[in-house]
Description:
The structure holds two protein chains of two kinds.
Chain A: H1 9-26, H2 28-31, H3 63-99, H4 101-116, H5 119-130, H6 134-161, H7 164-172, H8 176-212, H9 224-231, H10 239-277
Chain B: E1 2-13, E2 19-31, E3 36-40, H1 47-54, E4 62-67, E5 70-71, H2 77-84, E6 87-90, H3 104-114, H4 120-133, H5 150-162, E7 168-172, H6 180-197, E8 200-204, H7 208-214, E9 217-222, E10 225-231, H8 232-237, H9 242-253
Parallel strand pairs in B: 3-8, 3-9, 6-7, 7-8
Antiparallel strand pairs in B: 1-2, 1-4, 4-5, 9-10
Helix pairs in contact in B: 3-5, 4-5, 5-6
Amino acid sequence: MVNIKQLSIIYKIAAFILLLMLSGAIFAPVIAPYDPNQVLPDETLQSCSGAHLLGTDALGRDVFSRILYGARVSIRFAVAAALCTMLFGVTLGMISGYFGGIIDTIIQLLVNIFQGLPGMSMMIAIAGVMGPSTASLLLAVTLTSWAGFSRIVRGEVLKIREENYIEGVRSLGASAFYILVHYILPNIFNSLIILFTVRIGTVVLSIAALSFLGLGMQPPEADWGVMINDAKIYFRSYPNLLLAPGLCILALCASINLIGDALRDLFSIQQDINKQYL
Amino acid sequence: MLNVSNISKEFKSGLFGRTHTLAVNNVSFSIKAGQTLGLVGMSGSGKSTLGRLALKLIPCDTGRIIFNGIEISHYTMKQMKKLRKEMQILFQNPESSLNPRMTIGKSLEEPYRFHDIGDKEYLDEQIEEQLQFVGLGTELLNRRPYQLSGGQLQRVCIARLLLLRPKLLVLDEPTSMLDVSVQAQVIEVLKNAQKKQGISYLFISHDLDVIKACSDEIAVMYKGRIIEQQTAEDLYKQPKEEYTKQLLDTFLNF
């Protein structure tokens, strides 16, 4: 029996980094020494110092403050996008898996089409056509990632659908909606949490990539992708401008993915324990 | 009570549904009110399928089902909903018969969610009464299925079904996953319920001893057909079919 204390040290470090970033994002207005968009014409392109922990960029904006506010943008958006994707993917996956037949065939056809399209190009196309705005970004991310989600959910539903308790409650007179909400959903919840966590990491990356290409968050918004884009012409002489947001993206994605793995381990072990008692 | 005539069910599987399996082949039987029809046969002979067909949990290909004088063969799922509380099924494996994420109490309240039976107070009273009837206490209500033993779970399942006051119960091998001492208790509970509420049972089992102890009549199923149907006593004394003899012999030798 493995509990949370016995998890590998790597997972604990990941959790620590994530907590650090979350608190940085939440308390950004308190911690940040400068306004992230405050331009200081006399202090451009400074290296790390006591006054500017991570230096300043070409317009004299404090990089440390921008990193903190950038965490807010990234995390907020990633959670929103992951939720949208979940909502869409899980609903369609559950319907597809539970009802089967022609509904399943149609939804799976859509899933195949969307999975066949290259995600990044699709995202660029959608964000490009609709113009850069939060709504179009959300749509771009959701449309390109719901399919994989719904496929996994469908598989889980197919597994649970055959259990006796589903047939039993159906013979009691339960409606399909009731079964989906009270029987299927709670029983696939563990998998959903894991999927959700991993998804957040992927969204952070996609959004940074889009921002870097100028299709995501728009300057002067303090976003990590935007910061990397701003820094690319200076990075030979001022690598701190590029490394700071880059390493932040790396740390956030890596820690979220590791936590997803840790959750999977915990949940799967717990399921085994349940089975043992049965 | 229940009158089933000439029902058949064919399952299609494989690529383009080319493999056909005739699970139930032109079967007829009837169950009188308050009586038990035992259904025996080897695994794969179509017993469970027949039980589910009789309850219309799966649609049949051909044939007629008359329940309580009403023909239900052509009822849609919606029309069936009103009849659902009168015909129920008890499963073989009690461990997978209840939602593992729900407390026992929540599971027991479920029949009332789907059928308008009474208010909350009446509900609690009924749950307590039925739990007592199957020999369990109310302290189980806050537990979850994995914290109960197989016998306890099966009794919870029975209590849950009895709450609806059904007229027909299909018992799909209700004791085969339980050990012998618990088997006897569960059968006792089922018999008492039959006496008290006048329920008809379709008792599916491959265990001839259990069947003999419970059934008024016994039907023998072989390869999707009922090959013989007699009263329990007659069947044991003078089986008509060769297959039934073999079945009885193997069981007695064992």
